[in-house]
Structure formats: C-alpha cells, structure tokens
C-alpha cells in the first residue's frame, strides 16, 4: 500500500469511525475499510487534504457511505474534517440491532468539535422512527440533535413509533 493510500485510509477511518460512538456497530471498528472512487487526490504532511471523487464508496463492516465526492482534511497531523457531497447515503447497523439509513445532499463532520451536519433533503430513518428536513445537526459530545426546515420555510418532520410497533411503519408504509 502506498504512503498516500495509507494516509487516505487512516484519515477516512478516523473521520468515519469517530461517528461510531453515536451510531456504529462497535465491531465495525475492527473491520477492514474499503474505499473506491473513480479518482483520488491526496496530499501528504501535517496539513493535508485527501479528495475522492466519482462515486466515492466507503465500507467498513456494516458501515456504507456513498457520495459523489469525499474530502478529508488533516490539520497539525490530525484529521479535522470530513465532507461528503453529491447525493450522500449512509447506512449502518447499530449495536442494539437497529439500522440507520441517512440521506442528504451533503454531510460535514467537524471532528475537532464532534459535530455532524446533514444538509439538503435530509432523511434519516431507523426502525423506531424517522426525521426529515433541510438541515440536521448532531453533536456527538452532548447528544443534542437540532433540525430545521431551512431558510426556504420548509418544515421538520419526525415520526416516532411505540416500542411494540412494526419496523416497516417507520417509513409510514406499514399497515394500520
């Protein structure tokens, strides 16, 4: 594996697995990470950026992220930001047996402050419910979730099912 590829894999692993404290199956962290894209452009050094473009696909255990573009930035030798754009889809199993399926136009993960921002046509679905809107901000440190309809006057939509409800009802497609 070349030094550039090692750097890219390390930066992406840190970027993606840091989100794991909130949503990941803990065993995913011990699985190999596979990255595919039509193109990669990675710098080396203390302050470097690695860009994957052309249907970037990242898989590790149950985690799967697909986007048109993935950009990971390193500052002072540490990963500091991961940005995904162009029809982002994130899927992952959770330790409690639930599954998350999130979609948005872009995802910006600030690793220094541990804040993930989903922007544009956001849709997040789990077995017990769903959330949609134009912007969702999740603070990994505090567990605070903030969502909004955006400046266009859109609305936030949330559905929370009782524990005994069927998983198919989370999308609103279940039977009454």
UniProtKB/TrEMBL annotation:
Name the chain's protein: Lipopolysaccharide export system protein LptA
Family to which the UniProt record says this protein belongs: Belongs to the LptA family.
Q: Which N-terminal residues, if any, form the signal peptide?
A: 1-24
The record ties this protein, via InterPro entries, to:
LPS_export_LptA, LptA, OstA-like_N
Q: Which residues form a coiled coil?
A: none
Major localization class: periplasm
Q: Which residues cross the membrane?
A: none
A single GO molecular function term of this UniProt record: lipopolysaccharide binding
Subunit info here reads:
Component of the lipopolysaccharide transport and assembly complex.
Q: Which BP terms does GO give this entry?
A: Gram-negative-bacterium-type cell outer membrane assembly; lipopolysaccharide transport
Q: Which organism is it from?
A: Thermomonas fusca
Q: Where in the cell is it found?
A: Periplasm
The cellular component terms of Gene Ontology attached to this UniProt record, alphabetical and capped at eight, are:
cell outer membrane; outer membrane-bounded periplasmic space
Ranges for domain Organic solvent tolerance-like N-terminal: 46-143
Q: Which gene encodes it?
A: lptA
What domain of life? Bacteria
What role does this protein play?
A: Involved in the assembly of lipopolysaccharide (LPS). Required for the translocation of LPS from the inner membrane to the outer membrane. May form a bridge between the inner membrane and the outer membrane, via interactions with LptC and LptD, thereby facilitating LPS transfer across the periplasm.
